[in-house]
Structures are given as structure tokens and as C-alpha cells.
Amino acid sequence: MASKLYKGRFAPSPSGLLHFGSLTAALASYLDARANGGTWLVRIEDIDPHREQPRTADLILYVLEAYGLEWDDNVIYQSRRHEAYQTALVHLIKHRSLYPCTCSRKKLSGLNGTYPGYCRNKPPPAGSLFSLRLKCPDIKIEFHDLIQGKKKFELTQLGDFILLRKDLLYAYQLAVCVDDQFQKITHVVRGYDLIDSTPRQIYLQSVLNYRRLNYAHIPVVTEVDGGEKLSKQNKAQPIPLDEPRPLLVKAMKVLGLNPDRQLRDASVTNIIQWGVDRWNIHRVPATNAIPLSIISDTQ
């Protein structure tokens, strides 16, 4: 039975083409949505024009179609949603939840990503450029990850985070929360590398009076055991368009499914349906990473 209550999404950035790691994340969110009779949306996170590559957004959509991952409704582009982000910022400013920060990247280097609050209680110098940070109280954020289990974060250990950059570009955390609320997303299935974004987003949702979502974080795919995750920054190879079937089968292995070798000879449509019929999110390994070296092409 179709569930009108379940809405999942895949939200790639057009800073590079999809690689095997991003395919696995897309497949996981797609299978979970379809297995639960829900809808699956695609959102293009194109809020940072300095990092975008020409035509990449269109190519990402073309790749998803070639791999049988067909989305519902219209694709949302964050570059067209600035008014919504500004409305959220105004709400936060009115409630004194933000403060200006003039700190440079050089000043903050070596802090492991945790902002120590240098600018929290002092106004910026006249005429200086500043970002806007969200004040984070000394509280714990707890949530039940559908794959990883119970998670708990000290919000102050994550630090006050930026919602508007010095160059007046909206930050990832703000845009994601606003768009998840706008699209009525209920379930977010994504890579473990984003798990520390989840407590930030849960807190921001509460400040904006948004609903809390369900989260699941799949293990990221690495080149070797203990190595860096496959990513655009690490020059991971784009997935090919000419033969999607072997990579779909391999991605299903990462996600705890047990496809036999004969499935590679099926059509893309049948491979995807095979995955939907057998999907169980609790079979996804509850680990932070899986190396490519242990994902065999044979049984």
C-alpha cells in the first residue's frame, strides 16, 4: 500500500558527477522510499556557484534516470529558493538566535571544525564583513538513527555554526532545513559522513518550529580499509552511463542485500524492483565505512 506520509529525497550538489559512493546513497534513499510505498524527490543543492561545474546538474539527473532511479514531482533547485532562506533568517534574527562573526578561516584553522565563540558576545567592527552564526545552547541532541541506532551529541562540542556566509551565500545547514520542511520530507537516508550535520539540523528545526525528521546514515564507501571516502574532492571516478547494472548490484551489496551474480543480467528496471522487494533498512551494516576491497563482484 502506498504511504502518503513517507517522503524521501536525494540532494546532490553539482560540484561534480556522481561516483559510486553517491550512487549508493541515492540507491539507499530510493529503495527505502519505494519499499515503504512513499515518494522520492530530487533536490539540486546549487547554492555555491563557485564550486559548481557547467551542465553538471543536468548530467546528474541523466545518470539517475539511466540507473533506474526515477523521482516524483519536480526537481527543486536551491539557487531558486533564496527568498525562502531569507525568510528563515529574518525569523531567527527577530528571535535573537543569530550573531555576526568576523572570524577568518585562517583564525579558525586547527580547531577541528568546532567554533569557540570568539564573536558571540561582541559586536563586529564598523564596516567589517561578517557571517551569521546560530547560537547553540549547552544541550544534548539525541536521535534514533534507523541504521546506526541511538546517537547523542553535545551541541556545544559541535559549536555555533554559520547560516549566512560573508559572501552572502546561504549555508548548507540553513538551506537543507528550509527545503526539507518545504518539501514535507519525512525520512533522510544519507552517508555517515553527514551524521554530525544531523544534530545541527535537528536543533535548527526546533528553533524554526519545524518538524523533526527520521534519519538513517549508511556507511560511506572507501577505497581501502580505513581510507578516505569516495568523494568528488578526492577525484572519485564518475559512474559510467553505458552499463549501470554491475554497479547497481555492487551498491546493493554495500547496503546489506545479497544479490546473486545472475541479477547482473537482468534489466535495470528488474534490478531496481528486486532491491525494492527485498529492502530492509535494518540489514544495512551499522558501521561508518565499508572499503571497496571487500565488495566482491562474484559470489
From TrEMBL:
A cellular component term, taken from the record's GO annotations: cytosol
A Gene Ontology molecular function term of the record: ATP binding
Chain location of the short sequence motif 'HIGH' region per the record: 12-22
Cofactor: Zn(2+)
One Pfam family in the UniProt entry: tRNA-synt_1c
GO annotation, biological process: glutamyl-tRNA aminoacylation; tRNA modification
Keyword tRNA processing: no
Sequence similarity: Belongs to the class-I aminoacyl-tRNA synthetase family. GluQ subfamily.
Protein name, entry field: Glutamyl-Q tRNA(Asp) synthetase
Organism per entry: Candidatus Endonucleibacter bathymodioli
